[in-house]
Amino acid sequence: MPAHRSGKLFAGIGGLIAIALAALLFPLSASAHAYSASYTTIALTKSGTVVTYAIDELSVIEWAGGDANGNNMLDPEEFDAVKTPFAEVYNKNVALTIGGKPQTPVKIENYYLDRKGDATKVFLQVRYPAPSGGESVSLTDKLYEKDAKTNYVNLLTIQFGSGRSTAALSGGDRTWAMQVTDDEFAALPADVDQAAAANGGSQTGGASQAASVTSDASDNAAAENGGHGATSGWYSFFKLGMHHILGGYDHLLFLFSLLIARQSFRQYFTMITAFTVAHSITLTLTVLGWISVPGSIVEPMIALSICYVAIDNMARPHVSYRWLLTFLFGLIHGMGFADILVGMDIPRKELGVDLVSFNLGIETVQLAIVCAALPIIFALHRYRHARKFVLAGSSTALLLGGIWLVERVFIG
């Protein structure tokens, strides 16, 4: 193929990739809220089942309005105005079933706002009837089920007696279920205050830990068989990690920016390894509470990392020591990965397994993307005009990263 024709071909390919990236990610950069997480605690007692449902403030504003002054926050008066719509959305989308029968809330116990740093959650506490020994208990969450633009997860903490367990409801798997045995029912506290006291102490009590994500079919099977109809809870966190990075468009764009620059296989290997090690370190330290950096710092830094790598790609035809740069930025991205788990009260005895499972989910998707992309990238770099592909892709990454940076610094 003549040089000028191959040059036009690669310019065209680069342009198409740039257009595709912009078309895919620009609406998401302009979207106010592409990711939403709720935190639900289910406390089983002999006097009732108390569900405490918490979700980020911005989600409530999107459902119910109420933000009269347009500052993306709910002032006390504004919060009072959205309490009823908030409860209506909850009742419409979150269903508790006991013994195979849908339950109606006995009463709404409380509403409140909890502001911690730059993160605010809206809480709703609802009381349901108590289960009996031998009955199944399940919770189904259909919030955002028909909204393809929002990546949503409900992180559950289940308290029963002196035992606690966790689960993550996301994607199409939105039902948690467990079977309350006669022995477990006998060990349940009399009320919520007693339950809180029990869980404030040792978390290795006698109640068996059997909470997990199940389908309706397995819930029914559990009820019929008199056992815990559940697979191991680690898998729900593995899937959560997969969904988290797939919905993290900034992380994916950063990975794309790293890969498109021409490098040897050894350079790619050391770079990806450095990123994996770095984000695993800060992910773990953040979830354990040993480090804490506000999201108002972490999120702009993630956007800045995209811009920096994109500029580096355009400025240097042959990159070197990319692994060191990637390690430093990986430390920042790890804190971004951790944000969803920080608000979850994971029992210490489950923390190790859940954290490893979550990280493995992230790594599985990341490795799949790298394995799929590298053969294509190596093939493109065989041609003399591949540089145009790098420039087009990096320019698009710089544009989108810049938009995110401005949004996160000046809009929040």
Automatic annotation (TrEMBL):
Region forming the signal peptide: 1-34
Keywords, ordered alphabetically: Membrane, Signal, Transmembrane, Transmembrane helix
InterPro entries tied to this protein: EF_Hand_1_Ca_BS, Put_HupE_UreJ
Domain of life: Bacteria
Keyword Transmembrane included in the entry's annotation: yes
Annotated region (Disordered), positions in chain: 197-224
Protein name: HupE/UreJ family protein
